[in-house]
Amino acid sequence: QVQVVESGGGLVQPGGSLRLSCAASGRILTIRTMGWYCQAPGKQRELVATITSGGSTDYVDSVKGRFTISKDNAKNTVYLQMNSLKPEDTAVYYCRVTGATIQGPSVYWGQGTQVTVSS
After folding, report:
1. Per-residue pLDDT tens for 10-39?
2. In the prediction, which pLDDT does 52 show?
3. Are 94 and 37 in contact (CB under 8 A)?
4. How far apart are CA 82 and CA 16, in angstroms?
5. 48 Cβ contact list (under 8 Å, min separation 6)
6. Would you give the DSSP letter of residue 66?
7. Cβ contact 48:80 at 8 Å
8. Taking the chain, what is the end-to-end CA distance rounded to the nearest angstrom?
9. What are phi and psi of 52, to 5 degrees?
10. Angstrom distance (rounded) from CA 119 to CA 109
11. What average pLDDT score do residues 78-88 get?
12. Banded pLDDT at 90 (limits 50, 70, 90)
C-alpha cells in the first residue's frame, strides 16, 4: 500500500506565502513524477505544477514566477513554495504521485490540503 500525505495549507492574506509538503511512503519502488493539482469550489481539478524524477518542472501559466516546485528524493517528498498569493489561488491542493509498486505502475493521490487566500 502507498500513502500520500499533504501538509502546509492554511489561511493567508493576499501577497503572502505558504509552503506545501507532500510525502509518499509505503510499498512504492520507484517514483516517476510528483505534482500538485488544485480544485476550487464548483470547478474541475487542474494541474498546478509537476516535477519529474529527473528534476524537470512544468507549471500552469497562472502560477509561473510565483510558485516553485521542488523535491527531496531521499524523503520521497515534494514541496510547493507559493509566493505572492492571490484570492484566486484559493482551493484544495492535492498531491499526485505516479510510480510503481511490485504490482506495477499506478497513480496515487493525497487527501488534499485547503489553501485560503483572503484578507
Report:
1. 999 999 999 999 999 988 888 999 999 999
2. 96
3. yes
4. 8
5. 35, 36, 37, 38, 59, 60, 63, 67, 80, 93
6. T
7. yes
8. 40
9. -90, 175
10. 30
11. 98
12. very high
